[in-house]
Amino acid sequence: MARLNPTTKSKAPPLFRPPATPATNSNPIPSSSPAFATPVHPIRPFNPTAAPIPKASILPILLPPATLRPLAFRTFTKKHSLTLTSSALQVLATFIGKHCGTGWREEGLAERVLEEVAKSWKNRSGGVIVEGEGTELKEILKALEGNMSGGRIVIGRELSRQNSLVLGSSQYGEVNHTRLGLRPGNIPREDSQSSLGMSTLEVNDEEDEDGLMDPRRWLKVIDAFEQPRLVYNVAKKHFDRDTSKPSLFPPASHKTLLFQNRYNVIHQRLLRNESFQTPAFQGGKSSLQRSTSAITTQQQSYKLTPIANLLGRNRSSHMLLGLLSISPTGTLAINDLTGSIALDLTHAAAIPEDSAWFAPGMMVLVDGTYEEDETGTSSRLGGNGGVGGTISGKFVGFFIGHPPPERRHVTLGTAGEGDTTAGGGFGWVDFLGVGSSRALGNKMQRLEQKLLRPPPPDTDTDDPPPPSRGRVVILGDVHLDIPQTLQALKKILSLYSSEPEGCTPMTFILLGSFVSHAVLARGGSGGSIEYKEYFDSLAAVLSEYPTILSTATFIFIPGPNDAWVSAFSSGSTVPLPRKPVPEMFTSRIKRAFANANTEMEKENGNKGDGEAIWTSNPARVSLFGMSCELVVFRDDVSGRLRRTAVTLKSSQTSNPENEDEDIDMSPPPSSIPSSTPPPEIDPDIHTARRLTRTLLDQGHLSPFPLNIAPQHWDFSNALSIYPLPTAIVMCDVDSPAFCLTYEGCHVMNPASVVAKGRRGVARWIEYDVWGRAGKVREVGF
């Protein structure tokens, strides 16, 4: 933090300090208080706009990069341990030559500019290599340009939230503005330099929005390895950006931090829930409420007990929040940040019953009784008992449940449709690197309404309205080595190519695996040559529909059988997240898009802007900033849940209110609504609800132990779904295709594009961005 006064001040208390020397008063009118040099008349209000500071002029020059190289090497490499590429050096030389002019060397102007650029690059969590082709360096120079005059960095200008400049003189100028009674132009915050503000979206209120009528202009695909890595700070109750360099082989301490961050995020989410807040008047105990419960009853709030606090409290009832795990002895245990204890779920019942899976690796709530080991014969491997280790005895659980979720608008501190509230939340946190909800929410909402809102129905004609442009077509398990898949893909594309011009879907998402067997593992799908031929056949199919290719964005998500991970995994579980399919196999598809764009230019005079994006698994698709967030994930989660879930007691328990009823008669409805699914419910729908509730309550895409579903420790933040996204595309071939909404989050599973068990049927999901809902579509081929 910049010091406001360079002179040394006395550290004595104000009461014992010597009186300050009176300031010299140049006003001839005598002061009413000579000790403080206070004039007898009031001070005239200072108007900073009355006398504008003239902007100094400079003489731009053409500065060769080779001339700037020694100074840039000394500043970036030796002082800040950064490496400049030739393109970045060219950008810096052009900027300094334009804004510093002839005094770049003699007056030291270039050195100050390079120093601020290097600091900003490191504060934005940039890599070791400074690239000139990306947007990061251009954004830093754009922010710096607005604070320069005559080649020097000046004060009194408001710094944009998107830069990371830390200027002591600017802070000093803001303090002077505050003392004069003026509103400061920018209040520096410790966390605003890292995770807040207007990140990579180039949004300008004065921008001509009429020329940006295509909603794809506001679409961005966020790779899992490029997503900002945020860590919850318990002391600040806020998210901090992890500035350390990520690695695929991090130290062992990062494994501990992975689960610690998950626990802290869920713990703070619970403390914001109404059921865990102490009411003003105590009442009877009630069931767990979700964050959106509108029923207000007198209740006794739940209280979480750390595991270490169970010592010496034999046969007392508690509620624990912890990680469900398997102890070294092979029994169930629950862990939190204070310790671990054996868990007995023999008599435990799920709340709600039969509505979710409970497997090791999940954060669970357990309500029960602590039973201390009075004989001292409990088995503990390693002897690490007591606080911070294994607590003696066991915890007998009577009820077990998932942590209640939190709606997206509650997390971000917005009210429903994007209107900001006076409460807290994390609205200023930039979770995706596309700008925060508070900074860009209103702007993005207006753009979305302008571009995607359907026109009012025409009452004069009975014709149906044209299809919306804001649609996302989702196809799962696209096996290119099976001929039926290409036939189904042709049928689907032909349906959309016959739609009116300008109404075709904006995005197509294709999820792997793109081969039915593990490629490059000497499986049935062949090697690398055959793998490339499969994509060449896909390029041939796509080339038949140039209109779609030139007006849409195709996003490809790899699966477990794709390169390169299948070379050593043979289709088994591999660490998440996964890298995209290598470019060497997809060159023919990119050429098909380039040809379609050129063909459109020949026909209409305007070159098409269709593109193919190969991204990671999982990935995120951002539409209009944080207004709409889609999480795309390919994994067979339901099968893994069935194999690893803990078996609880049967949900068919007797109801005390109905014990006197005849066993052959249906009992009357209870006054307490039961969450048990009715017998007539479709098993496929019940499976979809269990899968959706399990993942969204956990706030994680892969809530399993690392030995069952490994993760890259430094990139595990990409698997978190907090805050809840607008929609989740979860391709799971072990579950049926479904579309449902839970806690405001729409979850979709396209399953396989070729319907299993049905001959000649293609199945996919069509998601409406404006309506925030998807539907399963089928067609014969």
Automatic annotation (TrEMBL):
Keywords assigned by UniProt, alphabetized: DNA replication, DNA-binding, Nucleus
Chain intervals for the UniProt region annotation (Disordered): 1-36, 448-469, 647-684
This protein's record includes keyword rRNA processing: no
Transmembrane segments: none
Gene Ontology cellular-component terms listed: epsilon DNA polymerase complex
GO BP, sorted A to Z: DNA-templated DNA replication; error-prone translesion synthesis
PANTHER family in alphabetical order: DNA POLYMERASE EPSILON SUBUNIT 2 (PTHR12708:SF0), DNA POLYMERASE EPSILON SUBUNIT B (PTHR12708)
Major site of localization recorded for this protein: nucleus
Compositionally biased tracts (Pro residues): 453-468, 666-680
Family recorded in the similarity comment: Belongs to the DNA polymerase epsilon subunit B family.
Pfam family, one: DNA_pol_E_B
One GO MF term: DNA binding
Chain intervals with Polar residues compositional bias: 1-10, 22-35, 647-656
Domain called DNA polymerase alpha/delta/epsilon subunit B: residue spans: 472-739
Protein known as: DNA polymerase epsilon subunit B
Name of the coding gene: Bcdpb2
Organism: Botryotinia fuckeliana (strain B05.10)
Protein's cellular compartments: Nucleus
Domain of life per record: Eukaryota
